[in-house]
Design goal:
Structural class: mainly alpha
Radius of gyration: 25 Å
Largest sheet: none
Distance between the termini: 34 Å
Number of helices: 14
Helix content: 55-70%
Mean pLDDT: 80
Order of helices and strands: HHHHHHHHHHHHHH
Shape: globular
């Protein structure tokens, strides 16, 4: 009947006092996690074999006095506990130290490489999220058909492939070229260096293709599978049967009713993936010689450049923690029961 209302208890709403307490708890947890990362980054990378002083001297024979000067300059002559307290004190003020190999503040080196990483990860993130949601929706709505089996099978296969292996394979096939396929894309780097203006933009986009394809191919499967699973759970709902009984077209039922209600797990996954993609781009940037945070991290590990490694590790971990926290803070806005 047109005037009938659904029976049952009304939906629970997020109370005014509950959400601030929920937010405070999540922010406190994030702060503790960041502090734990700060402590872990200091001690973890001091177990890496290698002497930074030998790198700074170019592995040339030097006197004990010269070695002492280098150690004193970078604070390596101090007891470990004193190095730790100074590191934490400076980090809390935004000073992550000075890079051994670049002789520049770590914050400056991270600031130089960050835009390049955001260009790569941002482009890939938008593409694999849109592709995963679109294909996941279609697979669920056509559950059990050939297209569904092909999409889920391909998604599972690509999701299980290591990103560095896929990147190397794309370089061999599409950069070096395998008969009859010619080399179509650069083997690495971000730009040729000889272009200006709009031609430079096109050149960067040309270099961007293979690393973006690598990230999209590996990452879109998770979004597809989560979206598909959530939509399959919604498809048995009585409200969809009612919508169809009212004469609504099948695609309209899907777009207006089923998909919006099924996107809650996907929205959470989107924020988690955003932080994880920034942190997980190390291998892809290294394979394609992309001048971002991942390539800088690999370069710093080879020294080892302890301040730079520690700073980058903190940035990667902070990206994951902050995106997870943001997802937690937004979740009650979609489902008020979470923050009760």
């Amino acid at each position: 009947m047109g005037g009938e209302r659904p029976t049952g208890p009304p939906p629970r709403r997020l109370t005014v006092g509950a959400y601030p307490r929920y937010v405070a708890g999540k922010l406190a947890g994030a702060a503790v996690s960041l502090l734990a990362v700060l402590v872990t980054s200091f001690f973890l990378f001091r177990m890496i074999p290698g002497d930074p002083v030998k790198f700074m001297t170019g592995r040339r024979p030097v006197s004990a006095e010269q070695i002492a000067v280098y150690r004193r300059e970078f604070g390596l002559d101090l007891p470990l506990w004193q190095q730790f307290t100074e590191y934490c004190g400076k980090a809390l003020t935004g000073d992550l130290g000075t890079s051994y190999q670049f002789r520049a503040p770590v914050v400056d080196k991270i600031g130089e490489a960050l835009p390049n990483t955001l260009l790569l990860t941002g482009t890939a993130f938008v593409l694999y999220t849109a592709l995963g949601v679109f294909l996941g929706t279609r697979s669920a709505w056509r559950h059990g058909r050939l297209g569904d089996r092909l999409h889920t099978g391909l998604a599972l296969t690509l999701y299980s492939i290591p990103s560095f292996w896929l990147g190397l394979l794309l370089i061999i096939v599409l950069s070096v070229g395998v008969d009859p396929i010619p080399g179509l894309f650069p083997t690495g780097g971000m730009e040729s260096g000889s272009e200006e203006g709009f031609a430079r933009t096109v050149d960067i986009a040309h270099h961007l293709v293979l690393p973006v394809v690598t990230l999209v191919a590996v990452e879109y499967g998770q979004t597809l599978l989560v979206t598909r699973s959530a939509l399959l759970d919604e498809m048995g709902g009585d409200y969809l049967t009612t919508a169809r009984a009212k004469g609504l077209r099948d695609d309209l039922v899907r777009r207006r009713h089923a998909v919006p209600n099924a996107l809650l797990p996907t929205v959470t996954l989107v924020f988690v993936n955003l932080g994880r993609t920034v942190a997980g781009v190390i291998l892809v940037e290294t394979v394609f010689s992309w001048p971002g945070l991942g390539g800088l991290f690999y370069q710093a590990l080879s020294v080892p450049d302890l301040p730079l490694v520690q700073g980058l590790f903190f940035v990667f971990a902070a990206a994951v923690i902050l995106m997870n926290t943001l997802a937690d803070l937004l979740y009650p806005l979609f489902d008020p029961r979470v923050g009760r």
